[in-house]
Design goal:
The complex is a heterodimer. Chain A has eleven helices and seven strands. Chain A is an alpha/beta fold. The termini of chain B are far apart. Chains A and B meet through helix 3, helix 4, helix 5, helix 6 and helix 10 of A and helix 2, helix 3, helix 4, helix 5 and helix 6 of B.
Chain lengths: 291, 274
């Protein structure tokens, strides 16, 4: 591609990160096919927030949109990072689990249906604590059941990123797509600093945070399948590619021996420069080709 | 909260298997053994503290990278072994205070390690293995997602030292800008926030609460009783679907998870509309 055309592409690109959950979901589905299920007019809100003086939202921060991707049936489930940090509550969690289960049932009845999950979340919503944690366990179970039949693609675009229990859900995905603005990890820097001190993790060290959790690092260390720009068309294109690709022969989270050996080979007597891992954990090269 | 010692996991693992040692080549923090249970030979797994663990942030009973990948390995071993045979029960003895909070863990993707363990347990369940979790102590947050929460059936002791929760009190108080006392008061009023196992039981996620006078020193009779409950849970799991629908169809869920049931009903109805 010439410099000039890439400049034009840059100027013309539409940011995906700036879109809300609903617009994101629509942008990933084939034009004119998106249909929202249990939308804001159904007003199924969290029953637990009002009693804690938190204003609920009519969609509980989770948008379920059914439609087609590349001509094939698909459901997009998008978390709204702007509502309670994208946290998982009873309602948002059940929306995701039920949508995954319905997609699974369609597959079992011969209608191939993929799922795309847009993760902008810090994990469990603390006001709904145990129901949030239970919801994540059930989401994980439903991903495991669905991914036997059709790909489950997790996209983290930013800027909230994907943390806590939902990072485990991303770990179960058939494919993980990230931008450079996205972060993916189990424990955020603030939590680590609180639990184990500033020497373990200085949560004010922005460069360190991105070096560890950032999309570029996760892609370079074989933990994400595609690294995309904050460009709606490019992201939609990547999702279409993975839907078309179908179920990978082996899922990343089932390659236990490979990752166990990688961890075993690490020198734990010191902290590492995250860049070291880029040579130790060689990337897939091209999008899950080796799986 | 008393200093976490990880005594309970070891006590119950030994009660069922007769010893408490890791399998050859495994880290000391993961106990795995096969032992008779009812008419089966079940696989038992438990995470225990190892003060000399290789990873410094995983020396007090946390579930870290090595623990998660070891669990995944030992569960997958059983799936592979029983591929064309009777699917043996898998029993997770749960006494885990947290996942490992460390920079090394994040760099080396503990999220994937935890997912790999959950994948193994969930895949075992989907393959037809009855997977039962017995919560004898703490079952917190990501540690429980990694070790125990994918089970067909969850049993727990009705005991003050048993806690299933998304976040330990001190951290939850800090994050919600409350004192621990305020948090505890609020948690008593809002069932899903409660730290009490009896309140957790109301959510309908547990198969059963079991009573043991002192879970750190069970009598032989109590061990026999708990063993019988494990066998009963296995029978129940074998005669039920391999998914987790029982958690939402329980009596407790009909009362406490009304919103979940409503969401599912609406989504099912709208899914089919054109």
């Amino acid at each position: 591609m010439s410099n000039q055309s890439s400049e034009i592409q840059f100027i013309n690109r539409q940011s995906f990160i700036e879109l809300g959950a609903r617009e994101r979901a629509i942008a990933l589905l084939d034009a004119g096919t998106a249909r929202e299920l249990v939308g804001p007019f159904d007003r199924v809100e969290s029953p637990w927030l009002q009693m804690q003086s938190v204003t609920p939202q009519a969609d509980d921060g989770c948008v379920v949109m059914k439609g087609k991707i590349g001509g094939k049936a698909a459901v997009v489930i998008a978390l709204e990072g702007a509502f309670q940090g994208g946290s998982m509550g009873e309602v948002s969690g059940e929306k995701m689990t039920a949508a995954l289960d319905l997609a699974c049932a369609d597959n079992e009845n011969g209608i191939e249906t993929s799922a795309v999950i847009l993760l902008e979340t810090g994990g469990v919503r603390l006001q709904e604590a145990n129901l949030g944690l239970a919801a994540i366990a059930e989401i994980m179970a439903s991903i495991l059941a669905l991914r036997k039949h059709a790909p489950v693609i997790c996209l983290t675009a930013g800027t909230v990123g994907c943390f806590g229990g939902m990072a485990l859900a991303a770990g179960l995905a058939s494919y993980v797509v990230m931008t450079r603005e996205a972060r993916l990890g189990m424990n955020g820097p603030e939590v680590i600093e609180q639990e184990n001190g500033v020497d373990e993790f200085d949560s004010s060290d922005r460069a360190l945070i991105w070096a560890i959790h950032g999309g570029e690092q996760r892609y370079a260390t074989d933990l994400a399948d595609a690294l995309v720009d904050d460009d709606t068309e490019q992201i939609a294109d990547a999702i279409r590619r993975f839907v078309a690709k179908g179920v990978p022969p082996v899922h990343r989270s089932s390659r236990v021996e490979l990752y166990r050996n990688r961890v075993e080979a690490l020198d734990t007597s010191r902290q590492w420069d995250p860049k070291e891992l880029r040579t130790l954990w060689t990337a897939n090269g091209s999008e899950g080709e080796q799986r | 909260m008393s200093e976490y010692t990880g005594v309970r996991g070891t006590v119950w693992f030994r009660a069922f298997t007769g010893h408490a040692s890791p399998m050859p080549g495994d880290p000391k923090s993961v106990l795995t053994a096969d032992a008779p249970l009812g008419n089966d030979h079940a696989r038992f797994l438990c995470v225990v503290p190892d003060s000399h663990a290789r990873f410094p942030c995983a020396r007090h009973g946390e579930v870290g990278l090595e623990e998660a990948y070891t669990l995944a390995t030992r569960v997958r071993e059983v799936i592979e072994h029983d591929k064309n045979a009777v699917k043996r029960p898998i029993v997770a003895i749960v006494d885990v205070k947290s996942q490992a909070y460390g920079r090394r863990e994040e760099t080396a993707a503990i999220f994937l390690a935890a997912a790999a363990a959950a994948d193994a347990y969930g895949s075992a369940r989907l393959a037809g293995h009855p997977v039962v979790s017995l919560v004898v102590g703490q079952a917190l947050s990501g540690a429980f997602l990694t070790h125990g929460y994918q089970a067909n059936r969850i049993l727990a002791f009705d005991d003050e030292g048993v806690m299933i929760h998304a976040m330990h009190k001190e951290a939850a108080a800090r994050i919600t800008l409350r004192s621990v006392a305020e948090l505890e008061k609020l948690a008593r009023e809002i069932t899903p926030m409660s730290y009490n196992i009896r309140d957790y039981a109301k959510l309908g996620l547990l198969h059963k609460l079991l009573h043991v006078e002192n879970p750190e020193r069970p009598s032989q009779q109590e061990i026999r009783n708990v063993r019988a409950e494990l066998v009963a849970a296995i029978v129940d799991a074998r005669s039920s679907p391999v998914d987790l629908r029982n958690r939402l169809e329980s009596t407790g869920a009909r009362e406490m998870r009304k919103a979940s049931i409503l969401v599912r009903a609406k989504l099912e109805a709208q899914w089919l509309e054109k």
